[in-house]
């Protein structure tokens, strides 16, 4: 049995973390915490390193510097079996939903139950319909994925992400490609699921308006580091030039247009001759 998570103990804790690939350091000196019952939003522009943070939380990449604790465990010290068990305590909503197009709505949501539990078919039916009802799609259980809209597909993916009632849910761009109504529905579902399950929720997004309506704590990353953190109201009143530029969508400011030079690029360029 998985031990209960203490509400005063962070589910995720980054302590002085640096992350990167090859010769390129994507993020450095990152400190952040996410607690049970809390919605935490990671904001940043495209290519700022938001998805790299998710990969670090799930143990796909290790910190170059610092420590990442998930459920009070150093994620880098877990062996394959322990890492798999830790990941099973998480739910993930991928940017494109990652639904099985050859399975029905019901079978998509039931898939984790069939893979990771030994409950009866009747119990599976009840639990899947309960989660589909929570996202407003109980009566769409029989439909094929091709028969539902993009917004509905995102809700099916959310039902699947929470079917095992995880302690931590990770959302990768949950509002991408949705119409305004679907965005609002998705935002309220994220808040409602977090409150109902008492889990921690981490959103990776660049959507300020929707995320600010539901989040407890915001971290803004950019220029390879943590730029600012605070509640939505605190950041909305920030005088930081980067924060103002990002939140207001201003074209001019400290956010550079040009991708930064790296040792890997310089090495590649030197092999190309003159340019």
Word description of this protein:
- The protein is an alpha/beta fold and 275 residues long.
- 36% of the residues lie in helices and 22% in strands.
- It has ten helices and ten strands.
- The longest helix has 18 residues, at 180-197.
- The protein is globular, with a radius of gyration of 20 Å.
Give a summary of the structure in a few sentences.
This protein is an alpha/beta fold and 275 residues long. The chain is built from 10 helices and 10 strands. Strand 9 (217-222) and strand 10 form a beta hairpin.
Identify the notable features of this structure and list them briefly.
alpha/beta; six-stranded mixed beta sheet; globular; disordered N terminus; four-stranded antiparallel beta sheet; 275 residues
